[in-house]
Fold this protein.
Amino acid sequence: MNARTPVFRQLVHAMRSTGEIQPSEGKAVRGWSRREFAKSLTLAGAGVLSGCAGLGGGAGAGRPGVKAPKGAVAIVGGGVAGLTAAWRLHQRGVEVHLYEATARMGGRMWTKKNFNEDGMFCELGGELVDTGHKALIHLAKELGVGIQHLKTGAEAGSDYYVLNGRIRTDADLIPAFAPLAKRIAADAEGLYDKKGEFTAKARALDQVPLDRYLNEAGWATGTEPWLIKILDIAYVTEYGLDTRLQSALNFVDFISPDTSEGLKLYGDSDEAWRVQGGSGALPDALAKRLEGHAALHAGHRLNRIEDDGREITLSFDHGRETKRVSYGRVILTLPFSVLRHISGVDRLALSAPKRKAIQELGFGENAKVMLSFREKFWHKLTPANQGGAFSDGLWQTWNASAGQRGSSGILTCYIGGAAARKFSSGSAPGYLKQISEVFPEARTAYDGHMASMDWTHFTFAKGSFSAPLVGQYCGMIGDGATPELGGRLHFAGEHTSEESPGFMDGGVDSGERAARELLAVAEAAA
């Protein structure tokens, strides 16, 4: 599992800097991760779409030997997964009808432009890109969308860890973590077999709530209680779930490095990049390419789905009207947190694992507050700071103005768990006060520009991103991806991506997979 926020990645770096998380001498190192194993299968079966990512292919260019399915394909959801699937299908000559509930395309890739006096932008949704996010990076290159490298190592300093009003830094955390690191290293042994599949040990650990694991491991190793609390806070804010709901396997698997190619301080996550001009530029580019070639229907909210064994009928609320349309093939990209509330889903002849995934897969509860300041005051702090902090108020901050022109500074305040459940737009200003208690300079430097996004209560998302609960880490994402109804119903969205669940890259990756699967079914039936 990758880090989604800069400050969380810095915390993991600090924990690994103890030097205690090392492979045991004489024992086999961890094999392929599930992600790497899934990638090998993806590459092996990628022939149906081979070559379509190149700029020279031309929109709508078909490939000899691949027959497009008869009739139009419906895609429900205009986020990056749905738009990517639409683009790939269009490139193969498939007629696409895409339906989006809101008035805009892009889903959780949503950029607020001209946020402050310097014309900087901030992200209401997904923000940073890892070097390993190949699907997103390749798609951006294909569409002529820039990917900006962020020199994340240029700024020196530690994040602040705030507990009961006391501020600690990495200098406090690293030595305190050493005893627990040894325990985690031992627990991380033998989680994967040679095929990259989870072992019985991993499945057992998946059934252990993270809060119980932290408390028991902390007590057994004599770890300072304040450090256990900081780890608890970090995971609540990062994943948007109370630690009693999170799997201990996620914790152990994440901070245990794969040392087969040397020690990776950040695991697979470096957050070294972002989409030039904001994340929203990528879905905007997709929508622009599709204009005039695919039917993009905004303002169409799915309220019912039915299947008669031959066609899938979709009912949409559109203004004051209800529109019913039927298709032979459909791709659903709605988060399962939304799909589970759609009428008729429970009556579809879906596999038992798919039903379970739709009804039970966890989703993070997070909100974001972005605050603009006349200067990046955190550069002047002692101890040195990069704008990052964890607070027992269940929030973390990071510098969102890095790499942008201008002297202004932007802090993103990322809120999780119980604090996010209580969040509303009216509570956003209160976070300036909380941040000022950690960074007193914030109060006088604040320039009056504020934005917020409440993903927990947003009707069309009902959560920030997929976040598997206790017992779900080992397989539910894969269950969510499989086609249903004899290959007539397909699924995409970050919640179905085994490559990058919870990330923008997962949206792109899953959209390409769904398009590939649909074309393969059509080719087999031809």
